[in-house]
Design goal:
Keywords: Coiled coil. This protein has a single domain, classed as Four Helix Bundle (Hemerythrin (Met), subunit A). The protein has 2 helices and no strands. The chain is rod-shaped and about 110 Å long. The longest helix is centred in the first third of the chain and has 72 residues. It is 92% helix and 0% strand.
Length: 137
Amino acid sequence: CGSYAEDVEVDVQLTAVGAQAVEDNQDLKNELAKLTMQIHAMEEAAEAKRQAEVEKEERIAKLEDQVRELSERLDSPGSTDSTQALDTKIADLQSENDGLLGRLTVTTDSYRDLETDHKKLQERLDGVIRALDEVIA
């Protein structure tokens, strides 16, 4: 058996190791909470982007329907609208459609960037969870 002084020294060392483990565990929990909040924020942003993309796709479909309707009216006999006015309207709608398609592409790229960031954060979170598991073990 060891002397009283050795036992006290071992107890002091174990207490220090335990305190460090508790501090490390708290740091990991804080990092986990921070990463979880970031992931939730990114998921909300991705959902908002997705919803905006859906709305743009609906607008594009509506514009395409309007173009089709105008084309049918133009082709129908006895049309009262002037051909030039219809051509102008069709060109305007097509231009707006092209602009929306461009914005949709930018939104899609942004959404992909968010997904990439989300994956990176998820990997960091997995690392923190593994580290927590190691501290607990």
